[in-house]
Amino acid sequence: MVSLKLQKRLAASVLKCGRGKVWLDPNEINEISMANSRQNVRKLVKDGFIIRKPTKIHSRSRARRMKEAKRKGRHSGYGKRRGTREARLPTKILWMRRMRVLRSAL
C-alpha cells in the first residue's frame, strides 16, 4: 500500500482541520497518491475523494443525571468528601448567616 502521509497532511491544511479528521477514500488510493500539491488536493476534495469527517458529539446526559442526583443529596457521603468540614462550609459563614437572621428579626 502507498503511503499517503503527505496527502493527508496537505488535506488537513486545506480543510483547516487535524489529520485525524481527514478521510481518504480507500477505493481511490491510486488517484489520491498522485496528488502532491495543495491544488491537486483541493480538486480531490471537490470530487469527494477526500472528506472532512464530522465532529463527534460529546453527550452531557450522564453529567446532567449525576447533577440531578447530587441535587437530591446523593453521592455526598463521607467517602466522597475531599476537604475538611471547615473548607466545605466555614463556621464563619454559618455564624454570619445566624447573625443576619437574628438582626433582621430585631
TrEMBL record:
Claim: Ribonucleoprotein is one of the keywords in the record: yes
InterPro entries xrefs: 60S_ribosomal_eL19_sf, Ribosomal_eL19, Ribosomal_eL19_CS, Ribosomal_eL19_dom, Ribosomal_eL19_dom1, Ribosomal_L19e, Ribosomal_L19e_C
Region (Disordered): 55-85
Pfam family, any one: Ribosomal_L19e_C
MF terms in GO: RNA binding; structural constituent of ribosome
Gene Ontology CC terms: cytosolic large ribosomal subunit
Protein's UniProt keywords contain Ribosomal protein: yes
Annotated Basic residues bias: 55-83
Keyword tags: Ribonucleoprotein, Ribosomal protein
Positions of the Large ribosomal subunit protein eL19 domain: 3-106
Highest taxon of source: Eukaryota
GO biological process: translation
Record family assignment: Belongs to the eukaryotic ribosomal protein eL19 family.
Name the UniProt record assigns to this protein: Ribosomal protein L19
Species assigned in the record: Hibiscus syriacus (Rose of Sharon)
Lineage: Eukaryota, Viridiplantae, Streptophyta, Embryophyta, Tracheophyta
